[in-house]
Specification:
Elements lengths: L1 H21 L17 E4 L10 H24 L10 H17 L2 E16 L6 E15 L2 E19 L2 E10 L3
Parallel strand pairs: 1-2
Antiparallel strand pairs: 2-3, 3-4, 4-5
Amino acid sequence: MKSAKKVGLRYILIALGLLVVVGVASLPLHVFAAVPAAAVKIDASGAAPRQVEDSTVQAIERDYGAAWKSLGQAVDENRPDLLNGFVGSAREQATQLIASQKTNGLHQRYVDHGHKAQVAFYSIDGSSILMHDTAQFEIQQMDGSNVVHSEQVTLHYLALLTPAENSWKVRVLQTVPNF
């Protein structure tokens, strides 16, 4: 059992080290989904060091999609009070983005066309999960209710989720160039 704990701890340290190396501050949190809720499909077949239960996959798909929806609404309406499902640095960055948009007098709307996430790590004690998320968006640059510019993009995220109360929360969300 001690070696399993060492392996689990090693995976956590590697995952967190990767997030630090990439640089949490580089995350463009303005890339968040607008209403309706994001379609999230999770592949947990590569999870290590522990397998992810089907009920956990379903809960994460539900909670991660709801988090993207709330973040999209908050960013689109410049209202940090709408942020749900994000804690820690992910929430702080979203709040900073909204403040920046308010200062500029513009905002962005993201039409979410879905997420395909692969679980890279699931802690032995079930306290954290790291996913590689590939998301499709239409980014709309908005001036009031007028679309000034629109483009289709594919973005890649490292997402670290932790359980809290009765749902999973996004603790860290980091853009990366690819997987």
